[in-house]
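It is worth pausing here to work through a concrete case rather than discussing structure prediction in the abstract. The textbook approach is simple: state the sequence, then state the predicted structure, then interpret. We follow exactly that order.
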Amino acid sequence: MNHDHHPRDQKVSTSFALLVTSDSRTPETDETGKLAKKLLSEAGHLVSEYGIVPNDSGKIKDWLKDVIENSETQIIITSGGTGIGSVDKTVDTARGLFEKELPGFGEHFRRLSYEEVGTAGLMSRSTAGIVNKKIMFCLPGSRGAMRTALNEIILPGVGHMLWELNRR
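Step two, the predicted structure:
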């Protein structure tokens, strides 16, 4: 096995956009958003965009398109709207914007979720995709889901992901 250091293995610091979809949360009551900001900051990253929008496809799409088109941020995380209920609109809205979907993210996330919470973890439609040279991750709205996705997948892999995304 080759253990040569590669640019994709270097520690990087980048900015994230964080969108919470909720009909009831506010910046003061958004514990999942607070956790995401804390974990990202502790890992040396910045949350440059943060918003809370209702579970409305049009409002979700407007917020995402604004970040996609007008921000230098390369990683977008959504929190909420990944379930099977009629109010869960985030995944369908985000998928409509993807140029490429990254199904391995959702598959691995559901495996980790299953190990933590049992069969309820399998009902998540969490996914990830690429749009306009940005990586978007759609996560459930719980603190546990945010912690698992960030600590087990996103933060350990961010350097490699950005290297792959930006190489020619």
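Step three, interpretation. The radius of gyration is 15 Å. Residues 1-5 have pLDDT under 50 and may be disordered.
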